[in-house]
Write a structure and sequence with these properties.
Radius of gyration of chain A: 13 Å
Distance between the termini of chain B: 36 Å
Shape of chain B: globular
Number of strands of chain B: 11
Distance between the termini of chain A: 40 Å
Number of helices of chain B: 0
Strand content of chain A: over 45%
Strand content of chain B: over 45%
Structural class of chain A: mainly beta
Shape of chain A: globular
Order of helices and strands of chain B: EEEEEEEEEEE
Helix content of chain B: under 10%
Oligomer: heterodimer
Largest interface: A-B, 20 and 26 residues
Number of strands of chain A: 11
C-alpha cells in the first residue's frame, strides 16, 4: 500500500490564526479524503477531494493528484478546531499519522 | 438512517479469550473497513472488504479474522486476545468506485477494547 506522510505532526495556534496542513503520498492516489478527529474521538468527514479545490466555510482543501499531495487550509481558527486532522486515500484508505492541532483562546 | 454502527461500545477481555466485533451499515455501501487506533497514534488498517464475500488484509492483520457474509455487516474476530490488542477499533464504509463520483468514507463511533 501507499505511504502517507502528514506535516506538521503538531501545531499550536492562537485563536484567529491561519494554518496549512499537508499530506504527501508515496504514489498516485485516488479517493483522497480529509478527516477531523475531535477530542472525544469521533471521526468527522471534512472533504472528499480526489483533485481540485473545495471550500466549506473557514476550511478549504486542494489536491494536486499529479504531484501526489493535498493541502488543508484552516482560516480564522477557533478553539473548536482543536483535534487531530487525518488524510487518507485509495481503495484501502491508508491513513497518515495525523496533525495534532491545538488552538488556544 | 443510522449510518455506521458498532457493537459493543466497550469490552474488557482476559488474555486468551475470544470475541467478535460487529459493524453494520445501512447505506448499501460496497466497501467496509476495520481499523485500530492506539493512544496518540493514527489509524492502522486491519482488514477491509470490497464487497460481500470478499476480504483483504491491511497493514496489521495478524491476530484478527474478518467475515463479510452479508453486504451490510463486517465482523472482526479475535480468536485469542492479547494485551497488545488493547485499542480503539473503528469500522468504516464507503460506497465503492463504480457507484458514483462521490466516494466518501464514513466511520462508526468506535469500540474500546481492553485486554487484561
Amino acid at each position: 500500500g501507499i505511504q502517507v506522510e502528514q506535516s506538521p505532526p503538531d501545531l499550536i495556534l492562537q485563536e484567529g490564526a491561519n494554518s496549512t496542513l499537508r499530506c504527501n503520498f508515496s504514489d498516485s492516489v485516488n479517493n483522497l479524503q480529509w478527516f477531523h478527529q475531535n477530542p472525544w474521538g469521533q471521526l468527522i468527514n471534512l472533504f472528499y477531494i480526489p483533485s481540485g479545490t473545495k471550500q466549506n466555510g473557514r476550511l478549504s482543501a486542494t489536491t494536486v493528484a499529479t504531484e501526489r499531495y493535498s493541502l488543508l487550509y484552516i482560516s480564522s481558527s477557533q478553539t473548536t478546531d482543536s483535534g487531530v486532522y487525518f488524510c487518507a486515500g485509495n481503495n484501502d484508505m491508508r491513513f497518515g499519522a495525523g496533525t495534532r492541532l491545538t488552538v488556544k483562546p | 438512517n443510522a449510518g455506521v454502527t458498532q457493537t459493543p461500545k466497550f469490552r474488557v477481555l482476559k488474555t486468551g479469550q475470544s470475541m467478535t466485533l460487529l459493524c453494520a451499515q445501512d447505506m448499501n455501501h460496497e466497501y467496509m473497513y476495520w481499523y485500530r487506533q492506539d493512544p496518540g497514534m493514527g489509524l492502522r488498517l486491519i482488514h477491509y472488504s470490497v464487497g460481500e464475500g470478499t476480504t483483504a488484509k491491511g497493514e496489521v492483520p495478524d491476530g484478527y479474522n474478518v467475515s463479510r457474509l452479508k453486504k451490510q455487516n463486517f465482523l472482526l474476530g479475535l480468536e485469542s486476545a492479547a494485551p497488545s490488542q488493547t485499542s480503539v477499533y473503528f469500522c468504516a464504509s464507503r460506497r465503492g468506485q463504480r457507484l458514483g463520483p462521490t466516494n466518501e468514507q464514513f466511520f462508526g463511533p468506535g469500540t474500546r477494547l481492553t485486554v487484561l
